[in-house]
User: Which sequence fits this backbone?
């Protein structure tokens, strides 16, 4: 059997093709729809199942938000948040996000200690 020079002895080309074939069989249509939604939205059809579960999902999000203390949040706010994923960020929004410093609430600001001549003389 011929094996290309850079091919692994353990994985033969036939094995690789079979692995790809098996992976392709496991690919769900919903995954493909999500991939193509951004590229060619007109070709994507929403199924009745997707349309039917959306009110439940919105209500679950609303209930969780209320449990966390966001009492003034309403369904239109949830719809606005869910709709933000449909539009890509603009160039200006990307620059703004990049410019914002990453703030971690768990870390405390580092206070640098001043090394004075008094401290240095006491060490000597």
Assistant:
């Amino acid at each position: 059997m011929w094996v290309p020079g850079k091919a692994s002895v353990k994985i033969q080309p036939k094995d690789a093709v079979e692995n790809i074939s098996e992976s392709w069989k496991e690919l769900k249509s919903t995954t493909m729809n999500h991939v193509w939604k951004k590229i060619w939205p007109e070709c994507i059809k929403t199924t009745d199942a997707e349309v039917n579960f959306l009110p439940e999902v919105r209500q679950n999000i609303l209930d969780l938000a209320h449990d966390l203390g966001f009492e003034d949040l309403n369904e239109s706010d949830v719809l606005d948040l869910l709709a933000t994923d449909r539009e890509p960020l603009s160039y200006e929004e990307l620059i703004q996000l990049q410019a914002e410093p990453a703030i971690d609430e768990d870390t405390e600001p580092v206070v640098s200690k001043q090394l004075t001549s008094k401290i240095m003389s006491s060490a000597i």
About this structure: The helical segments are 13-26, 29-39, 48-67, 75-83, 91-99, 117-123. Residues 48-67 form the longest helix (20 residues).
